[in-house]
Design goal:
Length: 213
């Protein structure tokens, strides 16, 4: 926090930690508040245990009908493949005990989701300097899927929403993790269009923090 006090721009470590703590705090608040009667209240996880062959097939393009046509699109085509990961490495730093302890109070799959949400925030923040993202709701527009097989796990959030200032944006991410869901191994994402304000209530999106015009 010292960098913020003396006028210097905080580094990426600060923003990732802030995002992790914000997501954990928001999740804890949702656990103790009465559930709202919104369409998204119970739309959280769709868990599927896959065989190794099924899991591998998710990343393989389907065969061309005639065997010689144009290359089919893979599931992740058009998504940005992160070249560097931030959330897991930062949590391993001994100096960040507070964030680790906060994540220690939730279940393994909940922890993994908050870790992936925070990774999404940091990846978007670094890719688009015009945005100031701080929060992700992974299941805003459709339920997420957690797929596990062998040594791998995958959280697919194809209907996520990302907040930046007082705006929400469509977001899609695929977060690959170790089998115990403790560490992110790769991350792909796609940022979409701004979500119209009249849809916020339907999607269960809270108001922004007023950080942008």
């Amino acid at each position: 926090m010292q960098a913020a006090r003396d006028g210097r721009e905080p580094g990426w470590h600060y923003w990732v930690l802030l995002s992790i703590l914000l997501h954990v705090a928001a999740f804890a608040l949702l656990r103790i508040q009465p559930r709202l009667a919104t369409p998204q209240a119970d739309r959280r996880f769709s868990v599927e245990i896959l065989s190794p062959r099924q899991f591998d097939a998710l990343s393989m393009p389907p065969p061309s009908p005639n065997g010689t046509g144009n290359r089919p699109q893979s599931p992740d085509e058009g998504m940005v493949n992160a070249q560097q990961l931030y959330s897991t490495a930062l949590l391993r730093n001994p100096a960040n005990r507070q964030a680790r302890e906060a994540l220690g109070d939730v279940t393994a799959d909940e922890r993994a989701l908050q870790l992936c949400n925070s990774e999404a925030v940091e990846q978007v923040r670094r890719r688009d300097v015009n945005l100031k993202p701080d929060f992700v709701i992974a299941y805003a527009r459709s339920e997420i899927a957690v797929e596990q097989s062998g040594d791998d796990a995958l959280i697919r959030a194809d209907g996520a929403a990302l907040r930046s200032g007082d705006r929400w944006y469509e977001l899609q991410f695929h977060c690959h993790l170790t089998a115990d869901m403790a560490d992110i191994t790769s991350f792909q994402f796609r940022l979409g269009a701004e979500i119209e304000r009249q849809l916020w209530d339907e999607l269960g999106l809270p108001g922004g923090k007023g950080g942008e015009d």
